[in-house]
């Protein structure tokens, strides 16, 4: 009789420590779900045996995933630089804005309308939605280095991350693309004119996005700056020039 209950080893539970490589069918199992990490020994042994099939990969990713937050005004060039970082260094790029737009367009999404309203008005979507999208994307990627672009963008984002993700990840630094407001506006309008299809690359939405950035995002950047975690990059030169600085920062922080 298996009366005793067996606690799943903690290491199998947390992000990047096995979960990222678990096949889909495990993802709602007791192995996966942090809230139900106790199961009968029979279940545990069965899951354990199946999990052992993927053990080599699990062992390789035993460290916590590394995270770099990428912040800056709307149109500062965060996405452009993230693509270059991905090309040069082994990072997975997760744009909070892209994930929200994807969720907005997903058939059957219960958040579609809410997300559209927030985006059009330049407001920050409640962190419960954004952080879950980020965590899922991290788990599904199987990678261990992430550029989290456009997040955390306000106090609610930061609090949510600290509640849900900070223990499971290692934040490296904040890459801050510093760009004058008029340059940001010009870039966003340019992006709109060249067919971004974004419902917020217009002057009316931009005014609100800039206001949100000044009121809600800058204090978060300031907070990280006071903690000595900000790498500030002048985002006004052309993209290749900006990347020279970005590359220097990553190399100086031990990334190859
Ligand atoms: N350094 C740069 N100089 C000029 N234009 C740029 C530069 N970086 C990005 N852009 C252009 O500005 C627009 C916004 O860039 P993007 O990377 O999408 O910004 P963000 O992700 O910060 O909103 C895009 O059309 C992009 O091609
Ligand atoms: N953490 C985030 C990031 C983006 N967003 C929403 O998505 C919009 C677009 O963000 P984005 O990062 O794709 O684009 P930029 O404003 O940086 O150009 C923001 O104006 C917000 O409405 C959010 O709610 N929360």
TrEMBL record:
One of its GO terms (biological process) is 'de novo' pyrimidine nucleobase biosynthetic process. SUPFAM superfamilies: P-loop containing nucleoside triphosphate hydrolases. CMP binds at residue 157. Its main location: cytoplasm. It is found in: Cytoplasm; Nucleus. Its cofactor is Mg(2+). Residues 95-125 are annotated as: NMPbind. Pfam families: ADK (PF00406). Coiled coil: none annotated. The keyword ATP-binding applies. ATP binds at residues 75-80, 191, 237. The keyword Kinase applies. This is UMP-CMP kinase.
């Amino acid at each position: 009789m298996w009366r005793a209950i067996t606690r799943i080893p903690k290491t199998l539970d947390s992000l990047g420590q096995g979960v990222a490589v678990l096949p889909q069918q495990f993802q709602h199992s007791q192995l996966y779900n942090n809230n139900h990490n106790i199961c009968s020994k029979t279940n545990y042994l069965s899951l354990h045996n199946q999990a052992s099939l993927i053990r080599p990969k699990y062992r390789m990713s035993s460290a916590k995933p590394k995270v770099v937050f990428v912040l800056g005004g709307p149109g500062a060039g965060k996405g452009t630089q993230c693509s270059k970082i991905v090309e040069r260094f082994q990072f997975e790029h997760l744009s909070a804005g892209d994930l929200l737009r994807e969720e907005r367009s997903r058939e059957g999404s219960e958040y579609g309308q809410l997300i559209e309203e927030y985006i059009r008005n330049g407001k920050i979507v409640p962190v419960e939605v954004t952080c879950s999208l980020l965590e899922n994307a991290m788990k599904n990627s199987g990678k261990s280095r992430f550029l989290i672009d456009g997040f955390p963008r306000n106090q609610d984002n930061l609090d949510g991350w600290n509640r849900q993700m900070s223990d499971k990840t290692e934040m490296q630094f904040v890459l801050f693309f510093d760009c004058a407001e008029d340059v940001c506006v010009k870039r966003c309008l340019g992006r709109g004119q060249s067919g971004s299809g974004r419902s917020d690359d217009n002057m009316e939405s931009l005014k609100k996005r800039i206001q949100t950035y000044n009121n809600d995002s800058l204090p978060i950047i300031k907070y990280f700056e006071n903690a000595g975690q900000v790498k500030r990059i002048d985002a006004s030169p052309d993209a290749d020039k900006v990347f020279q600085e970005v590359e220097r920062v990553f190399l100086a922080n031990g990334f190859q």
